[in-house]
Write a structure and sequence with these properties.
By secondary structure, the protein is mainly β. It has 4 helices and 34 strands. Helix 3 packs parallel to helix 4.
């Protein structure tokens, strides 16, 4: 099977994410990587003049890795010569560089499934539509009994991905595109994910759920009150939100599979802004049961609340790190609201330097490397992203509120005016996802 992998490098460790579960070579230290390159007869280059790739035939362990200068990396087949070709002439490697989309052409696709396939390809960021003359990969989706058969081949006819998907055709196409994205890039796709948001279409603020592209929108709550602050669990099976059915702000938990709903946090004062942990067993939120609005962590059913912050300001909008060990949140204890980081077990907090004077609604990316948040400039809100490794922050979208990362840590969903928009943070491309459900706000995204 032909696979395309995206190279990555970080400081003292060097390696390649092959994106196929247990068989990967991320985390090679430099000496191991050098031995790997030497074993297949390639000369070492200076680190600033290297791109990294990986091929799946075994030379050392389950994988062999090699280095090639950027000018020889082609989108398409890399024609390997010398020792590499001699060892594995039958296992071609296609290498892509970060930010470069794979051109995909549609073959034997028509009807509703084709429309979904086209939209998924264009929204993926990793793939882009083209014609058969310029495409690297040709794809097709056809009805196959109770489901869809998806196939992707290279221009010589070699199979990149071929699989049957059962069930609803729209979901089946989403699954096919996600697997294609992961096969070609090693990155997680976004097409099978779910979103939720607040809409006032009914005359009240209610919670809605939808596919990641805004399709299949369904009204979840019918509380005829104020229902806000939705938060999807990473697996998309549960949703927590703040509801005012009792006349006070309480936190409810909905099982999206069974439809059951429980009021799980109802302490005196305010209970708001729930965030379900990555493991799905805890909730971080803001409570004022002890007086000041502070960040607390409870079990998933709302019991055993543990207070994390003890500040003079208002603490809100907690967001979990991918492994559940830390939390970021917003606090105005020093004047204008800023973003702080602390252990999920409590202790001291640390101010994150962003360069902006007003920062709210932080959201931690699934890869743990970035935080999206709101900044205010001239009375309007903008969406910014902070690089936790480099420490730099930049505005990625003007006029947007409540940003949330997608499963790929590349796309961000946010509210603007009466719609929801998705932005590709690599290319800057924006797409309107929801725009016909009244005024929508406060998006959340499964992972």
């Amino acid at each position: 099977m032909v696979r395309i992998f995206e190279a990555e490098r970080s400081r003292s460790r060097i390696g390649v994410d092959c994106g196929d579960g247990a068989r990967h070579c991320r985390g090679f230290d430099r000496s191991t990587f050098d031995r790997c390159a030497s074993a297949i007869g390639l000369q070492k280059q200076q680190s600033h003049d290297q791109s990294l790739t990986c091929r799946t035939d075994a030379v050392i362990g389950d994988n062999s890795c090699f280095r090639m200068k950027p000018f020889v990396l082609l989108l398409g087949y890399v024609m390997l010569t010398g020792a590499v070709m001699a060892q594995s002439p039958s296992s071609p490697v296609i290498t892509i560089r970060k930010g470069t989309a794979v051109v995909v052409a549609l073959k034997d696709a028509s009807g509703p499934a084709a429309a979904v396939l086209k939209n998924d390809i264009e929204l993926s960021g990793v793939l882009t539509l083209g014609d058969s003359a310029t495409a690297t990969v040709l794809t097709s989706v056809t009805s196959s009994g109770n489901g869809v058969s998806g196939q992707a081949v290279d221009k010589t006819g070699s199979v990149v991905l071929q699989k049957n998907y059962s069930g609803d055709s729209r979901r089946a196409v989403h699954q096919f595109v996600d697997e294609l994205v992961e096969t070609l890039s090693g990155q997680k796709g976004i097409a099978s994910s779910k979103i939720a948001f607040v809409s006032n279409r009914s005359g009240h603020k209610e919670i809605y759920t939808a596919d990641y592209d805004g399709a299949n929108a369904v009204q979840l709550t019918r509380d005829n009150a104020i229902s806000v602050n939705p938060n999807l669990s990473p697996d998309g099976r549960k949703l927590a939100y703040t509801g005012y059915q009792s006349g006070y702000a309480d936190i409810y938990l909905v099982d999206l599979t069974s439809g059951s709903r429980n009021r799980i946090i109802k302490y005196p004062g305010t209970n708001s802004g729930p965030a379900i942990s990555p493991q799905g067993n805890r909730i971080a939120c803001t409570m004022s049961k002890d007086g000041n609005p502070e960040i607390y962590v409870t079990n998933i059913n709302g019991d055993s609340p543990r207070r994390l912050t003890r500040a003079r300001g208002v603490e809100s909008s907690p967001s979990w790190s991918p492994n559940g060990s830390e939390i970021v949140y917003s606090s105005d204890e020093r004047g204008g609201p800023q973003i702080y980081r602390m252990s999920a077990d409590g202790g001291s907090s640390r101010l994150l330097s962003t360069g902006f004077g007003y920062c709210t609604e932080p959201n931690w990316s699934p890869d743990g490397k970035k935080i999206a948040f709101n900044v205010r400039s001239g009375g309007a809100f903008q969406v910014a992203a902070l690089d936790l490794d480099g420490g730099s922050a930049r505005v990625i979208a003007n006029d947007g509120e409540r940003p949330v990362w997608g499963p790929d840590s590349r796309h961000v969903l946010f509210a603007r005016g009466s719609g929801l928009f998705m932005i590709d943070t690599v290319t800057g491309r924006e797409a309107r996802i929801v725009g016909d459900l009244g005024r929508v706000s406060e998006p959340t995204w499964s992972r």
